[in-house]
Amino acid sequence: MRKIKYKSPDELKLHTDKNRQETAAFLKKLKKKKPKTLDDVVHTLHYEAFDSFSCLDCANCCKTIGPRLTDKDIERLARHLKMKPSAFHEQYVQVDEDNDFVFKEHPCPFLMPDNYCMVYESRPRACREYPHTDRKRFVQILNLSHKNCETCPVVYEVFDELKNGNQNLL
Ligand code: SF4
Ligand code: SF4
C-alpha cells in the first residue's frame, strides 16, 4: 500500500466522484462474489494504513460527520463531564432527520485545536468503530464505506488498493 497522505474532505469528494462509476462496478462484482479473503485483506490494509498515518493529522470525521449517539453514549459522556444526562442532552444533543441523536455542532464540540478528543476514554461507540475497516463481514458495508471514501483518507486508500492493488479478490 502506498504511503497515506492527508486529504481534505473536499479533495476526497473530488477523487471519489472521479472514480465513482468504476468503484461502483467493482463493488457490484465484490458483492456478487463475496470473496472469503476479503476481511483478511481489508484488515491487513487497515493496520498497514494506521501504522503509518495518524488520525491526529486528520480529524476529518470529527470535523465533518460526527457520530450517532446512543443513550449509553450520552450517559457515559455526561458522567465524564460530571453533568446530568439531561443537561448534557440540552447542551450538546439534537435529533437529526433520521430521528437519531447527534451532536448539535460540527466540528464536534469535543475536538480540540490539536485534533485530540477531549473525551477520548468516554467517546461514543460510533467514534471507536469508525472507519469500520477492521470490522468483520466487510462485504456488508461496501456502500457505506464507499460513502466514507469522501471523508476518510484511509478508507479512500483501502478502496484504491482493493481495486488496483495485487489482492486477487475477483
Ligand atoms: S478515522 Fe479516518 S477520517 Fe477519522 S481521523 Fe482517522 S483517518 Fe481521519
Ligand atoms: S467525541 Fe471525540 S472522537 Fe468523537 S467526534 Fe468528537 S472529537 Fe471526534
TrEMBL record:
Pfam families: CxxCxxCC. It comes from the Bacteria. InterPro entries: Puta_zinc/iron-chelating_dom. This is Zinc-or iron-chelating domain-containing protein.
